[in-house]
């Protein structure tokens, strides 16, 4: 029989008077509430990681203010004030324009859309390899260093068994987009695969988390992608290096010939040189153009006017105009110089990196990128375990107070 005050399904002393049972239940309820409070505290204390990696949560900016998250949303983003000019209507699949000095993003369209970068990836290659190879080094090219160059690659004319200075090879990279020069420099840097790995490490250190490197020269390769955001980050970082900035702004150079002579090479960035009917852009200071059949035309362009430097990236215009990448970059830069003081930021190129001790001139410390094999919708084991232990402690208190020691099996 059930004692008075007991309920069906409740474990209790069957012969306990009702008033004793009522007292026990009242006290135990408070203990149970305490246990729930402990459980809730555990969840609140341990859950932040789960909250930032759970289903549907944007894995993007974690170190910046809310406007930066706009860049992870599809579409065009601009925050004009009164009197700001209208942002140009471009055909590019992705584009972005930013202030090179502050890192402020003025406007963007699908900024983190992952697309093949073509030879604009050479900006990251230079950022990674250039510091390790003094420009005055002379190197005799081994035939093996020119193996594996993709069919149809742009070449500057590097010849096997010919000696070149590293500075010659960089001219070949920046002006002629020479994949042969990239292969030789990568060999000096430890090899093709090592260079690709170091490029990805460099990208993460700069806060560029969309980039995957399979072929350091930018040649089409399965899985190789970047984004307008990342390429703009690379262009901006390059301009901070006097050596990089000098190469990317150079319109012409002399390259060693196979027979011991020399020949002139001209930068293929038409916005810099004004070649093929493309008017040169006033104030342009680089950075790098690219093209492959898979990527289409890509361009990172930087210009300086009246003490302001802007960097714009245009990826894969869908216009039938063969020079659309240059004209759309021109329109974007024109808009940026006119609108820079009349728009609010939609993000920052520094959004995914944090400044270490030592001030703004110190190298950045990257925010770790999510692992590709660690889906965000998995529960964090230590969150669940910790909450369970604290909640279990509360239940144990309840059982101890309600029925005495728990029987051992």
TrEMBL record:
It holds the Pfam family Peptidase_S11. The keyword Protease applies. Gene3D superfamilies: DD-peptidase/beta-lactamase superfamily. Transmembrane segments: none annotated. Residues 52-86, 353-376 are annotated as: Disordered. Residues 85-317 form the Peptidase S11 D-alanyl-D-alanine carboxypeptidase A N-terminal domain. GO terms for molecular function: carboxypeptidase activity. InterPro entries: Beta-lactam/transpept-like, Peptidase_S11, Peptidase_S11_N. The keyword Nucleotidyltransferase does not apply. Keywords: Carboxypeptidase, Cell shape, Cell wall biogenesis/degradation, Hydrolase, Peptidoglycan synthesis, Protease, Signal. PANTHER family: D-ALANYL-D-ALANINE CARBOXYPEPTIDASE, D-ALANYL-D-ALANINE CARBOXYPEPTIDASE DACB. Belongs to the peptidase S11 family. This is D-alanyl-D-alanine carboxypeptidase.
């Amino acid at each position: 029989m059930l004692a008075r005050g007991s309920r069906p399904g409740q474990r209790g002393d069957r012969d306990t008077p009702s008033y004793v049972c009522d007292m026990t239940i009242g006290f135990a309820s408070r203990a149970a509430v305490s246990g729930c409070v402990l459980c809730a505290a555990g969840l609140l204390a341990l859950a932040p990681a789960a909250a930032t990696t759970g289903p549907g949560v944007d894995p993007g900016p974690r170190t910046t203010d809310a406007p930066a998250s706009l860049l992870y949303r599809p579409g065009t983003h601009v925050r004009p004030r009164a009197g700001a000019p209208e942002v140009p209507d471009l055909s590019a699949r992705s584009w972005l324009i930013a202030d090179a000095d502050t890192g402020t993003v003025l406007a963007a369209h699908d900024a983190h859309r992952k697309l093949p970068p073509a030879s604009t990836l050479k900006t990251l290659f230079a950022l990674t390899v250039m510091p390790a190879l003094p420009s005055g080094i002379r190197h005799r090219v081994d035939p093996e260093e020119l193996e594996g160059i993709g069919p149809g690659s742009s070449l500057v004319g590097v010849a096997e068994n010919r000696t070149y200075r590293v500075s010659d090879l960089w001219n070949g990279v920046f002006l002629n987009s020479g994949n042969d020069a990239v292969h030789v420099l990568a060999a000096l840097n430890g090899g093709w695969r090592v260079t690709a790995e170091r490029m990805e490490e460099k990208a993460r250190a700069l806060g560029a988390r969309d980039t995957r490197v399979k072929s350091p020269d930018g040649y089409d390769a399965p899985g190789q992608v970047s984004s307008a955001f990342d390429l703009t980050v690379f262009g901006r970082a390059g301009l901070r290096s006097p050596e990089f900035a000098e190469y990317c702004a150079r319109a012409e150079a002399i390259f060693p010939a196979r027979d011991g002579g020399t020949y002139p090479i001209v930068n293929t960035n038409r916005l810099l040189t004004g070649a093929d009917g493309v008017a040169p852009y006033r104030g342009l200071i680089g950075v790098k153009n690219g093209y492959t059949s898979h990527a289409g035309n890509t361009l990172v362009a930087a210009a300086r006017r009246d003490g302001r430097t802007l960097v714009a990236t245009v990826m894969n215009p869908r216009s039938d105009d063969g020079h659309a990448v240059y004209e759309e970059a021109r329109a974007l830069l024109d808009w940026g110089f006119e609108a820079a003081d009349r728009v609010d930021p939609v993000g920052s190129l520094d959004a995914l990196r944090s400044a270490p001790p030592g001030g703004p001139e110190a190298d950045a410390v990257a925010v770790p990128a999510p692992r590709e094999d660690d889906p965000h919708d998995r529960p964090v084991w230590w969150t669940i375990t910790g909450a369970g232990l604290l909640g279990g402690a509360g239940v144990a208190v309840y059982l101890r107070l309600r029925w005495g020691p728990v029987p051992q099996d």
